[in-house]
Amino acid sequence: MKKALILLGCPESPSQTPMAVYAAQKLEKIDYEVLVASTPAASKLLEVSDPDKYYIKNKIDIESCLDNLEKDQYDLLMGFVHKDAAASYFITFYHILQCESIALVFEKDLELLNEFTEMVEENTDAKIVSVKAFHNPTPLRVKFDRVLKDL
Amino acid sequence: MSFCLDTYLQQSDDYEVLLARAGFKECAKIIKDRATEVLYINPGDKILGARIIGVPPIPVGINKDKGTIILSYTKPCHGTAAIELPVDEEEIENIRKIAIK
């Protein structure tokens, strides 16, 4: 079974938690064993959203994950990029893992969206889903589904 | 026990925060502006036991006369900070060993 790492950023964007649950389930259905790396706050949101761990089976603290990260540890990296720090984290995880990667870049401000997209584009070979989004995860979900078909 | 940068920053007061809650680019600029020498490392390289997060090449400032280095320090919800902290000569040599330019 292939291994996927979903990297969550700061949980203040409402689209992140439902999209993380959605992505974990979709990846599992195409035979990925999924681990979600997040901050404690983002992890709590997942725990409340999925109390029986039906969708998110494995979680790890983002800092512990980063400390022990090694090249080729995962087959797929999927990261949520909606802040400058999230772009930095994604780029760092990408450079350590050097595996196939998907960046879900989303922001309500178009200028910031372009800035984060450029950061990821210039520093990785990741497939990029770039969407103007905040509350509504649908545009993100639709584009993510398209990228999944290419995996 | 190995050195932990997170613990150090929580328990010490001999470091200076040059910029806080900023973006990586702003911190990279202040590191280059405020250091007498700048080395560059790859994302994920370790300094003082902590993986450094950012966009390559990541600048690390060296102020040898003051015995300090300037690092970018990123947290998911708090953005990136530029921090100047004292280190011994050995740590500066360790940074030279992993420097890419």
From TrEMBL, chain A:
InterPro entries associated with the record: MTH777-like_sf, UCP006600
Pfam families in UniProt: DUF1890
Protein name: DUF1890 domain-containing protein
TrEMBL record, chain B:
InterPro entries to which the protein is assigned, alphabetical: MTH0776-like
Protein name in the entry: DUF1894 domain-containing protein
Organism name: Candidatus Methanobinarius endosymbioticus
